[in-house]
């Protein structure tokens, strides 16, 4: 797979992971449709500090900084407000 | 907005349960949505719904959402799913469970898989900071 870049020119590391995850989710849905009559909602009762494989959850470190950037971008661009108004006019 | 705050809260609560934590970023996001859509009770309705659904198992939660989905205005189904996606990713992290819940929400809302996939693709493309589970 060719390396893709984001709009800011950074190498997009998500491309491969995202596509793989979409495929996994699709297979899970197909398997579920064969076995059950209604969708399953995944539910966790505790927020894990570590993932199932024992590695530190990214949410506790880099994720927090990324979430702050996403929230700032949402407010700064105003596109989110416009999108909401369009979706709920 | 035609859909009631409590109905929207049902979906947002289910989005919270995907990772089991109603974190600071999700709270901030809900406040923003409440302000823009002028739903003063959204934050408090969501907190009540989180408590209400706390003891539910996954099947009960799905049934709870199916009931709520019937009360979502037809013209606002895509909007509700968009808000769920934003909520699932408010912590800048998208896990496989969160992605599966996104498609489950779409199914319950009657939004076809192709449309839901396009919405997800667009969101991921726009959000450069989003971390995808490895």
Describe the structure in your own words:
- The complex is a heterodimer of chains A (89) and B (134).
- With 89 residues, chain A is mostly helical.
- Helix content of chain A is 53%, strand content 0%.
- With 134 residues, chain B is an all-alpha fold.
- Chain B has helices spanning 5-17, 24-36, 42-53, 58-69, 77-88, 96-109, 113-126; strands at 93-94, 131-132.
- A two-stranded parallel sheet of chain B has the order 1-2.
- In chain B, helix 1 crosses helix 3 (42-53), helix 1 (5-17) runs parallel beside helix 5 and helix 2 (24-36) packs antiparallel against helix 5 (77-88).
- The model of chain B has no long low-confidence stretch (mean pLDDT 93).
Shape of chain B: globular
Portion in helices of chain A: 40-55%
Structural class of chain B: mainly alpha
Distance between the termini of chain B: 37 Å
Give the gist of this structure:
With 89 residues, chain A is mostly helical. Chain A is 53% helix and 0% strand. Chain A has helices at residues 14-35, 62-77, 79-87.
């Amino acid at each position: 797979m060719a390396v893709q870049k984001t709009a800011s020119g950074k190498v997009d590391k998500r491309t491969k992971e995202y596509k793989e995850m979409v495929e996994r989710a699709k297979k899970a849905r197909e398997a579920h449709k064969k076995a059950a009559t209604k969708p399953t909602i995944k539910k966790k009762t505790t927020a894990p500090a570590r993932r199932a494989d024992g590695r530190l959850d990214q949410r506790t470190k880099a994720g927090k900084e990324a979430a702050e950037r996403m929230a700032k971008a949402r407010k700064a661009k105003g596109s989110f407000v416009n999108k909401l108004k369009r979706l709920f006019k | 907005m035609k859909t009631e705050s409590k109905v929207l809260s049902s979906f947002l609560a289910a989005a919270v349960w995907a990772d089991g934590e109603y974190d600071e970023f999700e709270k901030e996001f809900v406040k923003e949505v409440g302000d823009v859509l002028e739903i003063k009770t959204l934050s408090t309705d969501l907190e009540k719904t989180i408590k209400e659904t706390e003891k539910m198992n996954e099947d009960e939660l799905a049934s709870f959402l199916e009931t709520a989905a019937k009360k979502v205005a037809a013209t606002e189904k895509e909007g509700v799913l968009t808000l769920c996606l934003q909520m699932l990713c408010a912590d800048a992290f998208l896990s496989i469970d969160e992605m599966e819940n996104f498609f489950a929400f779409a199914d319950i809302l009657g939004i076809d898989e192709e449309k839901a996939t396009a919405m997800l693709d667009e969101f991921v493309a726009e959000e450069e900071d989003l971390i995808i589970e490895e």
